[in-house]
Every structure is written in C-alpha cells, then in structure tokens.
Amino acid sequence: MGENDIFQLLSHEYYQFTSAEKRVADFIISNGTKAQTMSISELAEATGVAEATISRFCRRLNYNGFAAFKLAIAASSASRTGLSNPLTGEVTHEDTIPSLAHKLAVSSMDAIRETEALIRPSAVQSATDALLRADKVLCMGQGGSMLMAQEAAHLFSTSFTGYFPVTDSHMQVIYASQLCQRDAILYFSYSGTTTDLMDVLRTAKTQKATIILVTRYLNSPGAAQADIVLECGSRESPLQLGSIPARVAQLYLIDILFSEVCRRDLEGCKKRRAQVADALSEKHV
After folding, report:
1. Is residue 97 part of a domain?
2. Looking at the structure, do residues 45 and 130 belong to the same domain, yes or no?
3. Which of 140, 249, 250, 252 has its CA 20 to 30 A from that of 236?
C-alpha cells in the first residue's frame, strides 16, 4: 500500500481518535466501497455521529473537506483491489464491445429503475404547480449538472415561455438576486453540496423564489434549503466524475416533470409545440 493509503492512515492514527471518530474509522475500514458513494448525512446516520464530527474528522486527517476524503477512500480502495477503474458498469480491460455495451445498458436501466423507486408523487405535483405559476424559471447547475439544466430549459421552451439556462456561477447569483415570489429556480446538483449551489439558494430564498432541486441526496445541505426536492437514482464514486447513468437518471426526472407539466394543459401544449415546430422548419434543408 502507498503512503497515501487512507486505510493505512486510519489504522495508524486509530488510537488517537475520539470514540465517535473511531466509529467513523471502523465503518470506513469495513465498508470502504460503500462509504465512497455516501453523502456526509448518510455516513453520519450510519455511524451514529453528527455531521460536524465527520467534518472535523476529515480536517484532522488533513483533508480539505468530505469530498476530498471520499476521493481518498475511492483511490485507496482501487489501489487495494488493483482495479483502478473510473468506468461505470464494472467495465474491465477484458470486456468485448458487446459485453461492454450490455454492462453500460444495465447501469443506465438500473439508474432509471432506482429513480422511479425514489419518485414522490407529492414532490412532483408541488414542482409542477410551482413551474406552472412561475413567470420565469431559471435552470442552473455546475459542470455536468449544468448540461442537464440546459437540457431542461431547452425541452420546456418547446412548450412554454419563461425558461432560461444560466451557466456562469456569478451570473447565477446576480439573476437570483433579481427574482421574486412569482419566479422559480430549477437547480441540478448530484451531490447537493457545492458552494455555488448554496450561494444561489441563499440568494433566491431572500427573494422568496421557489427552489426546485434535483439531487441524489435528500439529506444534503442543498436539499435542506430547497422548497422542493426531486431525487435521482444512480450512485457514483468520486472517481467517476459525472457518470452517464447519473445523467440518465436526471434526464428521466426531467422527462417526468416535463410530461406532468404538459399533461395539465395538453391542448395548449400541443398548440405551442406546433408553433415551435413550424418556426424551426425553416432551419432544415
């Protein structure tokens, strides 16, 4: 094992830990693969300690935060097993293209099934109500999640006015500061823990705009600030960095939300989509 192995470090420092920190260390050592995909709230619940204890524990081990700590767990787990594999679907060097394709198809289908199981009809209904009454909906995210926000803005714009993607983190805060209670934010964040997300949500809440968050973790800091939370399935390790199954899960949620909003006004939606299709027809050869 290398000198940066997190499991070796935990064993070396174990008897210097408090009783609460030992519970965290015990869980990480026994459940490294599982721990690397957990949120700080889930780890706190699993170990019976406070989230603040885990944050202090990470800093004690000289990690900047929980995300850096999880990355170290993922890297050390890969080093121990000899499978430094950043790919989803358990794709290996020995796979053929057909077996690779099958594994990835299963991963994406599993993400959809898991998301379906997490659907809360009351949350979808509340999100639909908020979108239908909003004068303006800002679609936001960071990194790969911003791609999902742009996809949502594009899809909703084929049937409704007032949907705008905002890509720059500074502009997101600026636009959020000019919202009102008749507006809404549709934010995509797999972790629900980024500082940019929290900046936007704090600003939007002061303006009384409705906040809809699409995230993997219901107990994340972002979810605590949002008015409505829609959970997406698919777990990914820190080494996978925006896996396709995670995006498939978010796309599936977008489709559910869009379909429900349209279902409330099928005739109006049909008319507006026909207008859009007619306007775009001149863009084709």
Report:
1. no
2. no
3. 140
Give the DSSP H or E segment for 263. Answer: helix 244-263
User: How far, in Å, CA of 17 to CA of 60, rounded?
Assistant: 9
Contact 221, 194 (CB under 8 A): no
122 and 64 in a single domain? The answer is no
According to DSSP, the residues that pair with 163 across neighbouring strands are 137
Q: What is the DSSP string of 154-217?
A: HHHHTT-S-EEE--SHHHHHHHHTT--TT-EEEEE-SSS--HHHHHHHHHHHHTT-EEEEEES-
* Count: domains in the chain: 2
Buried b (16+ CB within 10 A) or exposed e, 207-237: eebbbbbbbbbbbbbbbebbbbbbbbbbbbb
Residues of the chain with pLDDT below 70 are: 1-4, 79-89, 235-242
The Cβ-side half-sphere exposure at 77, using a 13 Å CA radius, reads: 21
Q: In the beta sheet, which residues pair with residue 264? A: none
Place of tokens 């939007």: 204
